[in-house]
Design goal:
heterodimer; A: mainly beta; four-stranded antiparallel sheet; globular; B: seven-stranded mixed sheet; 11 strands
Chain lengths: 111, 112
């Protein structure tokens, strides 16, 4: 399975945009890029996913590099509730839907 | 009501005891998963099921067993609990054709 690399931690101030990077240089053509987050004391929750084009939803935006070797999750205006561990996960045809979690990025949001 | 429920939410047990963790869902999804999470680490897949009676081993299945007797229920058993099985356990569901998983609130298991 292709691997992802994320910074261990990042910090942001409330109301400011946050860009969370993920490197996946060995991504295959059929791998989808998924992002989940885990709030303290909760199970992970789905945030967004994409294949090639940038994606937007009510929670965030996903910017995918043209060569697909990296992606960035964008939170347009961070709130205290966005403080969580963010996981970048690749899911391809041989994953059979299984999620392989790395250590993720711990996002701290300052008031 | 939550889409995925787990019982119990917390459990303390002793080494050698048999433990069963229950997961139930109300979304009618066909796929169900069990993960464990250790402090400071991401989740690791224990078992998964794509349909009733379908059982597949995940990354760390040793010491665990599962049962999927009904579409809405997926149980995880520890036949003889040991201290290094102390962890947070999460159940998740997904629908065939999509990869989005919905997670339950977790069960905190402590084995003394």
């Amino acid at each position: 399975d292709a691997k992802t690399t994320q910074p261990n931690s990042m910090e942001s101030n409330e109301e400011e945009p946050v860009h969370l990077p993920c490197n996946h240089s060995t991504i295959s053509g059929t791998d989808y890029i998924h992002w989940y987050r885990q709030l303290p004391s909760q199970g992970p929750e789905y945030v967004i996913h994409g294949l090639t084009s940038n994606v937007n939803n009510r929670m965030a935006s996903l910017a995918i590099a043209e060569d697909r070797k990296s992606s960035t999750l964008i939170l347009h205006r961070a709130t205290l509730r966005d403080a969580a561990v963010y996981y970048c996960i690749l899911i391809g045809g041989t994953s059979y839907g299984k999620l392989t979690f790395g250590q993720g990025t711990i996002l701290t949001v300052h008031p | 009501d939550a889409d995925v429920t787990q019982t119990p939410r917390n459990r303390i047990t002793k080494t050698g005891k048999r433990i069963m963790l229950e997961c139930s869902q109300t979304k009618g999804h066909d796929r169900m998963y069990w993960y464990r999470q250790d402090p400071g680490l991401g989740l690791r897949l224990i078992y998964y099921s794509f349909d009733v009676k379908d059982i597949n081993k995940g990354e760390i299945s040793d010491g665990y067993s599962v049962s999927r007797q009904a579409q809405a229920k997926f149980s995880l058993s520890l036949e003889s609990a040991i201290p290094n099985q102390t962890a947070l356990y999460f159940c998740a569901i997904s629908r065939q054709g999509t990869d989005t998983q919905y997670f339950g609130p977790g069960t905190r298991l402590t084995v003394l």
